[in-house]
Write a structure and sequence with these properties.
Shape of chain A: globular
Distance between the termini of chain A: 21 Å
Largest interface: A-B, 12 and 11 residues
Strand content of chain B: 15-25%
Order of helices and strands of chain A: HEEHEHEHEEHH
Oligomer: heterodimer
Number of strands of chain A: 6
Distance between the termini of chain B: 24 Å
Number of helices of chain A: 6
Helix content of chain A: 40-55%
Radius of gyration of chain A: 15 Å
Largest sheet of chain B: 3 strands, mixed
Strand order of the largest sheet of chain B: 1-2-3
């Protein structure tokens, strides 16, 4: 898995042709949920955010990005403003109504408040380090 | 009439015995700092604690009466330990 890059994931995810035409997913159908499932497993640390790491479009997304950046771990992101289908499906997948959303090793961790609190307590660092007990 | 006291009594009615403190973060009565200390959170992780409160606020959020919530949850024991609560902004 060399050369993975946040924007690579984003462009692949929005490029999803069926019968030569883009799939329109205005509701969180099975296809959209499967895309979300693939996205959150695309790397050990994954973020649904509004905007991009270079240009976050929301203060909460910017805050979580700042926290993850400060931990110096590789991560992937998806801009939910770029795809309404993924945006709706991500809410349903996590049963969580807002963005940003952080996933670690495919598991939903939380949004801005939870990530901030875990980081302040040092819990996030422990979580990212992982246990390797498998 | 919405506001901090209405939101406090709403959450307290849904979580009997809980201590609820709500602050209006923006002066616009739609961005709230919410602290909930409840024994209903005992044995639950942070995510599950937040899910309990967010589920209670779902209608408020859906109706856009509440745009954003800055949430802090803890057990009553943890609340006593920190000598009362304050929603940080």
């Amino acid at each position: 898995m060399s050369g993975t890059h946040p924007f690579r994931i984003a462009s692949q995810a929005t490029d999803n042709p069926r019968n030569g035409r883009p799939v329109l997913e205005t509701h969180a159908g099975v296809a959209a949920l499967e895309r979300v499932d693939r996205l959150v497993r695309s790397g050990p640390v994954f973020l649904f955010i509004k905007g991009t790491p270079a240009e976050p479009r929301c203060g909460f997304s910017a805050n979580v990005l700042r926290i993850i950046e400060s931990l110096a771990v590789p991560y992937l992101t998806f801009d939910v403003l770029s795809d309404e289908g993924v945006r709706a499906a991500a809410k349903e997948y996590a049963s969580w109504p807002t963005f940003p959303q952080l996933y670690v090793r495919g598991e939903f961790v939380g949004g801005n408040d939870i990530v901030s609190e875990l980081a302040a307590d040092g819990e996030l660092q422990r979580l990212l380090r992982g246990k390797n007990d498998e | 009439m919405r506001g901090t006291s209405e939101l406090e009594s709403f959450l307290e009615s849904r979580l009997p015995g809980a201590i609820v403190e709500v602050r209006d973060l923006t002066g616009t009565e739609d961005h709230f700092g919410v602290l909930v200390a409840s024994d209903a959170f005992a044995g639950k992780g942070l995510l599950e604690q937040h899910r309990v409160v967010m589920a209670l606020l779902k209608d408020h959020l859906d109706r856009a009466e509440v745009h954003a919530v800055k949430l802090k949850t803890m057990t009553l024991a943890a609340y006593q330990q920190r000598g009362g609560g304050e929603v940080r902004t």
